[in-house]
Structures are given as structure tokens and as C-alpha cells.
Amino acid sequence: MRKSIRTLLDRLPLQFRVLYQQFLLRVIDLEAMSIQADVIGFLGQIAGVLIMFSMIFAVRLVGPTLLMTPVQVAAFIRGAAWSSEQLAISTMMLVVGLITVITWDATFPDRRDVLVLSPLPITPRTILCAKVSASLSVLGLAVLMLNLATGLVYPLLLGSLHGSPFGVLRFFVAYWLTMAAASLFLYGSVLAVQGFTALMLPRRIFLRLSAILQLAAFGLLLGVYFLSPAIPTLAVYRVPENQWWLACSPTYWFFALFNQLNGTLPAELAWLALRAWIALGVVVAGAAASLLLCYFRTMKKTVEEPDLVPGARGLHWVPHFGSPLQTAIVLFSFRSLTRSRQHRVAFAFFLAIVFAIALALLRGELSATAPEPLSPNLLASTFMMMTFAILGLRCGFSLPISLTANWVLRTTQLCPSQKYIAATRRSMLLLAVVPVWLVSALLSISCRPFAQVAGHLAALAVIGYILAELSLIGFYKVPFTCSFLPGKTNFQFVLWGFLVLSFTFMVPLMSQEWKALHNIFDYVFLLSVHIVVASVLWAFNRHRAKSAVLYFEELPDEIITTLGLVSR
Predict the structure, then answer these.
(1) Are 474 and 397 in contact (CB under 8 A)?
(2) Residue-range domain boundaries for the chain
(3) Distance in angstroms (rounded) separating the CA atoms of residues 22 and 24
(4) For residue 328, how far is the Cα from the chain centroid?
(5) CA–CA gap between residue 50 and residue 63 (Å, rounded)
(6) Measured distance CA(425)–CA(322) in Å, rounded
(7) Beta carbons of 222 and 355 less than 8 angstroms apart
(8) Quick one: which of 442, 438, 444 has its CA closest to 456?
(9) Of 258, 285, 109, which is closest to residue 184 (Cα–Cα)?
(10) By C-alpha distance, which of 89, 282, 285, 273 is closest to 183?
């Protein structure tokens, strides 16, 4: 089998194979990484995270059935079938959508592709096929990893309701065909929007609008995923209030398509499956047309039209955030986040989670007919918003804006390192802690009583400062100036460790704060403890910053290898 695949690959044109390998590695921006970065290892860690999510979804369905009788198992599976299928499809569409948005410009030719490949005897068709194949390979790997466990467990359990091996086989085929169709729909939708926008607009305007569309896509994908109502039974589908959501949500279109392929779709939901087929056909045709037109009509625009234009003349007011060095680093951090695609994508992922949590809270407040009392859910939600914002900005700090320009910062380091680290702390507070605190204040403005709301906002500000100090321990860099070495950090360990620690500390912390808000003496004691912890962390980081040395290149740890020779 392996030999036959190798023989088939060898029959492909050499130009296609070389370009395919290069474009596959360029899914991650190589210019942002250290020269010794392990790209394959980093992609393997991401694949491991997707496999873990697949196992969690599988255990979520299998776990409750371990202590049940066969009759109870059948009843449980029958009751959980629709909700489990909807969760699998919606999660698959979310992951594929996020990967497609993250690799926003990976499929279309950029200026480097045109300048390097145009003088060579390579046709645009070969470039197009290599880029599309590389993008589809990444998406196919994500689909396979995310469904590695559920793609086997779901057919065995849910397909067993048909009472025959043919039902299990049909469920298996329907499951994978639906996942492939849903992934192709989202991938084609993004390509079609991006391609036709590039065709209709001048390149300068397209580049500016592309950034806005990319951020909007992040918010839309996560907002729809977190805010979609649960429709677990056919009776809920028949509710008139849900009809507009069914008509507008692709998740339910492909859920109906899955049940149509599986042979379990009620006749009154056939219009949803038809809408999925029509949407898939339109999106695939639109994506193919946009790609062909972009490669054969707009590749010259990439070189002929400038990406950047001179700024408008006039008076420009620059705010001050402390000393000139602190102002420079804060403005440099802000402009890196807003102007750089890779930083915008990395930070927007975490901001989209914050946005989804805030929107969920806002939806509850808008549906309320009267001011509601402050609840533990609001405390936990604002805490998670603050955590994700700080984590997202801290991850963005590790990605460089331009390694080729780092020599400017290295040769102009006239101030002690501790002043640069203090400016980095101020950037973290102004760009992550303050915005989330303001959003939390707006979300809790309708809660009562005001004394408890004010107490929670004061505690949240101190907690945000503590999290900021914790995130900057050992971070002796200027933001966005150090190369990235993904192989140095175990991404899976960091992700799961962060989630476990966050929920481990969040539950007792929010419980203690909730109790303290009802007793002034307990609250003063709790806030004093927070302030003491913040002061200790500030003193610790400041003491270490005095002897710190700024570094601009991530290097792997040196390993000494011995030959094992022993003198006798």
C-alpha cells in the first residue's frame, strides 16, 4: 500500500511536487520562526490537541453507558443521538472555519510568489493546483484528527440503533461524507468571499478590507458556535421561533444532510437537506471561479499595484503612556496587532472567545425584563474573559513582526533592560486588562446592587494585574521582536495545563469572592490578599528585571552528548 502511494506520487509533475512541499510548510509563517524551529513537530502537537478533543467527545457519549443495562443504553443513545451529531458537525465546522481563516492568504498568490515564480517556466495552473492541494491537505488532516475517535465510536453506537451491520456501515459512510461536505462548504465560502473581493477592488483597498473581513470571520464563527440554540428533538424543530435560525444556520443544513444520507431524516426537514446541497454546489462553483480568475487575471496586480501607500499629511496626535520609551513600545505593540496579519490572527482568536462570552452575557441581559442580581456566572465569565485576553496577548508578544528589522532594536538599546520590561508590562495592562475591565463594567452595569458590582470590578482589576504579572515572569523581550521556536514548548501540555489550572483556581476563587461580596469584612480581607499577591509579584518581577538581559532569538536548549568512553 505504501509502495503504491509512493509510485503514484512519483508520477506527478516534479514542479507540482516541489511547490506542494514548499506551500505545505508555509501554512505557518516561516519568517516568524527561529531558524531552528521544528515546524513538523509543532503541527504534530496541534494534531494531538485535535485528537484529544475527538476522544473527549467520544467519551462524552460512551462514558454514561458503561454502567447501564442494554435497554437503558439504547434509550440513552436514542435520546442523545441528535445532540451528539449536532455537536460533532458544529465543532467540525468551527475548527475548519478557524483553520481557513488563520490561513487566510495561503491559497491566493502573494507578492513573493509572483516575484519568485513568474520568471520561472511554471504555469499559473501548476501554482494554483499546488496551493490548493497544500491547503486541502492541512484541512483534511484536521478533519481526520478531530474525527479520529468520534468517526469510529459514533457509527458503532448510533448506527447500532438500526439493528443491522448495514446500518452501522451506512452511518459510517454518511458521517464521513457529511464532515467532508461541511468542511468543503466552509473552505469554499471563505475562498469565494476573499476571491471575489480581490477581483472587484483595487489591491490597496482589498488589503485593508481583508483584515476587517478576517476579524469579522473570527467573531462570526465563534459567536455562532457558542450562541446557537440547542435543538435536540423533532418537536423543538417544529417550534415557529426556531424556523428562522434553521433557515440561516449551515450547521442544521448539514445535520439534515447527514440524516438524509443515513436514512433517518423526517420528511418535514427535507428542505434543510436540499438547502445544504444547493449551498455546497454554489460555494464550490464560486470558489473555483474566484480562484481561476484570481490566478489568471489578478496576478499582475500583485506586482503592479503597491501594497502600502503614503500616509495622509496633516497633524497627528500621539497619546502618551508614560516615558518616551514606554510610549514607543505601547504604540509599537498596538500597531503590530492592528497592521500585522499573523499577530492580528493570533490575538483575534482569543478576542473572539472573549467576544463570544460577552455576547452570551449580553443576550441574557437583553432578554431580562428587569435588572438582575449579580450572579456567580457573571463573576466566572468576566474572570475567563480576562484570562483569555491576557493569554492571547502574551502569545502574540512571542511572535515577531519582522526579524530582519531586529538589528535596529539591538543596536539602539540605550536604556537598562528593566525599563523595557516595565514598558512591556504597561503594554499588557493597556491592551488586555483595561479593555476587558471596561467590557465587564458595561456588561454588569444593569446588575444590582451597585455596591456588589463595584466590589467585583475592583477585585477583577487586581486579578487582571496579577494575571498580567504571572504571564510576564521570565519574559525578557521587547514584544514582537523575538523569533518564535514552536518546538521548544509543548503546545499540548501548555494548553491542557492552562485549562486545568484556570478552572481549578477559578471555582474556589469565584466562590470566595461571591461569599465576600455579601460581607464587608470578608471582602476587605479578600481584596487585601489580592493586593498583597499583586505587590509580591510586582516586586519579584522588578527584582529579576534588574539583572535580566534582553534576547531576540529563541534557541533550543543545548544538549551535551557523551560517547560513553571510560578510561580504565
Answers:
(1) no
(2) 38-304, 333-546
(3) 5
(4) 29
(5) 19
(6) 12
(7) yes
(8) 444
(9) 285
(10) 89
323, burial (CB in 10 Å: exposed 0-12, middle 13-18, buried 19+): middle
The answer to whether 178 and 89 are in contact (CB under 8 A) is yes
Q: Please answer whether residues 144 and 99 qualify as being in contact, where contact means their C-beta atoms are separated by less than 8 angstroms.
A: no
The pLDDT of residue 35 is 47
Return the pLDDT at 512: 87
Residue 484 phi, psi dihedral angles, 5° rounding: -105, 130
**Can you tell me the distance from the alpha carbon of 35 to that of 290, in angstroms, rounded to the nearest whole number?**
35
* DSSP string of 27-76, one letter each residue: TS-GGGB-TT--HHHHHHHHHHHHHHHHHHHHHHHHGGGTTS-HHHHHHH
Q: Distance between CA 179 and CA 142 in Å, rounded? A: 11
Q: What is the mean pLDDT of each run of 10 residues along the chain (568 residues)?
A: 58 80 67 53 70 80 74 73 83 84 74 73 80 84 86 79 74 90 90 83 76 78 75 74 82 89 84 92 90 71 55 62 87 82 71 70 60 79 85 82 68 80 92 90 83 91 93 87 63 62 76 88 92 94 88 64 52
Name the grid cell of 455: 466590589
> Three-state SS for 373?
strand
Catalogue the E-assigned strands of 357-500. none
Query: What is the distance, to the nearest Å, from the Cα of residue 213 to the centroid of all Cα atoms in its chain?
Result: 15
CB 93 within 8 A of CB 183: yes
CA distance readout (Å), 393 to 94, 117, 432 = 22, 36, 7
HSE of 420, CA atoms in CB hemisphere, 13 A: 21
Residue 383 phi, psi (nearest 5): -65, -45
Spatial separation of the C-alpha atoms in residues 552 and 547, rounded to whole Å: 17
pTM of the model: 0.73
Q: What is the pLDDT of residue 537?
A: 94
What's 433's DSSP letter? I
Q: What is the pLDDT of residue 393?
A: 87
For Cα atoms 29, 33, 38, give the angle at the middle one, nearest 5 degrees.
Answer: 100
